[in-house]
């Protein structure tokens, strides 16, 4: 599995952890890694828990990509939309355990899950 999205399977539960810098920006590489993790979860017939680092689920799309060109921004948003639809149609439940902020596309990850869990921060 990728370093950008780690995958851990335990007793039929796959935990996917976003690991892309301090804000877990959603980049094309993160989306590829996320999809690979979802592929593995389907093969494992696992319930999925998506989480991030302490204090943040995701700060949204990678601003470096979004500001690099109109074409790059359009492609990233299209890939992100496809990921959201995939989450919504995943054959096993997806739970997002939100460890903190979920901004922009991070909020859409929450909305694309079957269940959402969040707790008050420090």
TrEMBL record:
GO terms for molecular function: enoyl-CoA hydratase activity. The keyword Electron transport does not apply. It is an enzyme of class 4 (lyase). Keywords: Lyase. One of its GO terms (biological process) is fatty acid beta-oxidation. InterPro entries: ClpP/crotonase-like_dom_sf (IPR029045), Enoyl-CoA_hydra/iso (IPR001753). Its EC number is 4.2.1.17. It comes from the Bacteria. Belongs to the enoyl-CoA hydratase/isomerase family. This is Enoyl-CoA hydratase. It comes from Pseudomonas syringae pv. actinidiae ICMP 18807.
């Amino acid at each position: 599995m990728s370093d950008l999205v780690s995958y851990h399977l335990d007793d039929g539960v796959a935990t996917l952890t976003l690991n892309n810098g301090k804000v877990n920006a959603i980049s094309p590489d993160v989306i590829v890694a996320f999809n690979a993790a979802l592929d593995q979860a389907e093969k494992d017939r696992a319930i999925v828990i998506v989480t991030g680092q302490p204090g943040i689920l995701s700060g949204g799309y990678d601003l470096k990509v979004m500001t690099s060109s109109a074409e790059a921004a359009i492609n990233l948003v299209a890939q992100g939309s496809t990921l959201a639809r995939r989450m919504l149609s995943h054959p096993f439940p997806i739970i997002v355990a939100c460890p903190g902020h979920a901004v922009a596309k991070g909020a859409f990850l929450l909305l694309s899950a079957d269940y959402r869990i969040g707790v008050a921060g420090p």
